[in-house]
């Protein structure tokens, strides 16, 4: 993994005086799924926000497709093909599902109907509910709207902050299946997950963060097999 | 026959004035509620923005009248409206650039913006009084009535009669057009949808690439035009006097809150609720009752809940009741 598609390298930084990230490195190859796991307060979400530019780095760099994007604003990264799905408040609750997707495509001036068709093909339930307000949908369906909105820019990288937070185990499996489908279309996926075991099962690459630094790195399968990772982070 | 007479009297003194006033409040409330939805503060200067827009329209009307331009039987102020729109939009955009934007960039609390708008209110009200004075002005010309009370009486032969004034028809038609257009704009156009998105979830709107300064500019333009339209229609219907427009602020905000602050769909029913509350509570039902009740049951009193001087208290009471029992308004705004 000498020149990965997306990499946040040796990132240091935080919101106030104290650093939350202490030199962690997160990288993902094109079309693969990388997952960041770790205990509460390990800086998982912060690491991903740093990759997206929502946090100023004191040290380290972020590169996308070999290009340094460390100084770019989040909006500029969206224009470069990155898309971010926040953990909460990630839909326009008062607007219909279809309008949510249209807003996802706000920056596009071309005809985006085929992209919308792809999203509906990926999440068939959204087609049935397209005239319904996103705020009226169930938790799992809202997450699908949120991911669908992010896909409308046809991003090359999709960043997901705990996409399965607060949904039932059945819905979680369903969402992970859809995320695999997204990755199969060539979109690079980086996500933060609380449900570490299930997330590592679908991960090409896994990062275990502790106190803002890399503790374990490997393929999802390797991490699941590692006895230390299992006993410390996966509950045996 | 008596029921008909009662209905005609009711239409003349309650229904038509209430509908007209309701439309004017609805347009005012729409402007205030749009600003609240996007900028997240109650714009206290909205009443005086209505006065400013009306003043600009009156000045343009005088110019047109002096030049001999007329669209009789329609009133000249209708063709002066575009000048009023332009002047008010420029005024409001300049205010945003000089006053609100610096505060916005510092991300101040919304109470700071409310107090700022209070200052803007005094300045704008002062400007209006400097330019046009404090007096009561009638600026409607053209035909005063679509049909007069006397005409209605000869047509129907009823004891009671009703008059339909040009200003009432213009108010209702203009409100229907403005509200219909605004609804189309907000639900069908890319720009309108981006404004709703920004109002719904600012962070996600930024993530989607929606430009906040553009949204803010458009909301000021819409609010200035709606305020001007509301003010001109009110002035055509009644008269223009700066202090009256300042006092309109209360019923306008009551209408916006009843409809759900930040919710454009609610502003129209909100306007009607406030207008009809004011009219119904201050109307003397003696005449209507005397037609409906049998001989000998005629009431001795006026059957009036409150003197008309208290009508502002009615909107205030409705406002307080809504805030107590349903603070998000009938149609769920963002007040909570």
From TrEMBL, chain A:
Source species, domain of life: Bacteria
Pfam families (alphabetical): ABC_tran
InterPro entries, per database record: AAA+_ATPase, ABC_transporter-like_ATP-bd, BCAA_Transport_ATP-bd_LivF, P-loop_NTPase
Entry keywords, A to Z: Amino-acid transport, ATP-binding, Nucleotide-binding, Transport
Membrane-crossing residue ranges in chain numbering: none
Single GO term (MF): ATP binding
PANTHER family listed in its UniProt record: HIGH-AFFINITY BRANCHED-CHAIN AMINO ACID TRANSPORT ATP-BINDING PROTEIN LIVF
Family indicated by similarity: Belongs to the ABC transporter superfamily.
Protein name: ABC transporter ATP-binding protein
Organism: Shinella lacus
From TrEMBL, chain B:
Main location as per UniProt: membrane
Official protein name in the record: Branched-chain amino acid ABC transporter permease
Pfam families named in the record: BPD_transp_2
InterPro entries registered for this protein in UniProt: ABC_transp_permease, BCAA_transport_permease
Domain of life: Bacteria
Membrane topology field: Multi-pass membrane protein
Regions that span the bilayer: 6-39, 51-72, 78-99, 111-132, 162-186, 215-236, 242-261, 268-285, 305-325
Keyword tags: Amino-acid transport, Cell inner membrane, Cell membrane, Membrane, Transmembrane, Transmembrane helix, Transport
Organism from which the protein derives: Shinella lacus
Keyword match Metal-binding: no
Cellular localisation: Cell membrane
PANTHER family: BRANCHED-CHAIN AMINO ACID TRANSPORT SYSTEM PERMEASE PROTEIN LIVH, HIGH-AFFINITY BRANCHED-CHAIN AMINO ACID TRANSPORT SYSTEM PERMEASE PROTEIN LIVH
Family: Belongs to the binding-protein-dependent transport system permease family. LivHM subfamily.
């Amino acid at each position: 993994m000498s020149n990965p598609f997306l990499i946040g390298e040796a990132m240091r930084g935080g919101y106030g005086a104290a650093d939350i990230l202490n030199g962690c490195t997160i990288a993902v190859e094109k079309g693969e799924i990388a997952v960041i796991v770790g205990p509460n307060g390990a800086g998982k979400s912060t690491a991903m926000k740093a990759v997206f530019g929502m946090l100023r780095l004191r040290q380290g760099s972020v590169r996308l497709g070999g290009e340094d994007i460390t100084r770019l604003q989040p909006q500029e990264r969206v224009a470069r093909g990155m898309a971010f799905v926040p953990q909460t408040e990630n839909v326009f609750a008062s607007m219909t599902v279809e309008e949510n997707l249209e807003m996802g495509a706000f920056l596009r001036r071309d005809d985006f109907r085929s992209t919308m068709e792809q999203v509906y093909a990926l999440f068939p339930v959204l087609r049935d509910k397209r005239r319904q307000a996103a705020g009226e949908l169930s938790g799992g369906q809202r997450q699908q709207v949120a991911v669908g909105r992010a896909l409308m820019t046809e991003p090359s990288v999709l960043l997901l902050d705990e996409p399965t937070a607060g949904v039932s185990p059945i819905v979680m499996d369903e969402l992970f299946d859809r995320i695999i489908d997204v990755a199969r279309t060539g979109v690079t996926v980086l996500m933060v997950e609380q449900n570490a075991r299930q997330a590592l099962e679908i991960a090409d690459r896994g990062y275990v963060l502790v106190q803002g630094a890399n503790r374990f790195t490997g393929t999802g399968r390797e991490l699941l097999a590692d006895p230390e990772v299992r006993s410390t982070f996966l509950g045996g | 026959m008596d029921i008909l007479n009662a209905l005609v009297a009711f239409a003349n003194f309650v229904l038509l004035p209430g509908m007209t006033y309701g439309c004017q409040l609805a347009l005012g409330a729409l402007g205030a509620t749009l600003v609240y939805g996007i900028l997240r503060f109650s714009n206290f200067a909205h009443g005086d923005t209505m006065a400013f827009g009306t003043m600009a329209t009156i000045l343009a009307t005088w110019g047109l009248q002096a030049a001999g331009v007329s669209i009789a039987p329609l009133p000249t102020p209708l063709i002066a409206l575009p000048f009023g729109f332009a002047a008010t939009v420029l005024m409001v955009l300049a205010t945003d650039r000089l006053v609100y934007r610096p505060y916005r960039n510092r991300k101040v609390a919304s109470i700071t913006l409310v107090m700022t708008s209070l200052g803007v209110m005094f300045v704008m009200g002062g400007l209006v009084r400097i330019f046009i004075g404090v007096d009561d002005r009638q600026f409607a010309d053209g035909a005063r009535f679509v049909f007069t009370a006397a005409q209605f009486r000869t047509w129907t032969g009823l004891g009671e009669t009703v008059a339909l004034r040009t200003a009432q028809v213009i108010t209702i038609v203009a409100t229907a057009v403005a509200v219909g257009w605004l609804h189309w704009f907000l639900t069908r156009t890319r720009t309108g949808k981006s404004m709703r998105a920004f109002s719904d979830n600012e962070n996600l709107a930024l993530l989607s690439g929606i430009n906040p300064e553009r949204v803010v500019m458009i909301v000021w333009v819409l609010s200035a035009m709606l305020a001007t339209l509301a003010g001109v229609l009110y002035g055509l219907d009644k008269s223009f006097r700066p202090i009256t427009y300042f006092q309109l602020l209360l019923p306008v905000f009551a209408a916006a809150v009843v409809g759900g602050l930040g919710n454009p769909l609610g502003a129209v029913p909100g306007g009607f609720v406030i207008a009809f509350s004011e009219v119904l509570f201050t109307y003397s039902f003696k005449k209507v009752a005397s037609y409906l009740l049998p001989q000998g049951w005629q009431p001795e009193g006026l059957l009036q809940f409150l003197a008309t001087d208290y009508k502002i208290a009615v909107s205030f009471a409705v406002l307080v009741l809504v805030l107590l029992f349903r603070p998000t308004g009938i149609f769920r705004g963002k007040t909570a």
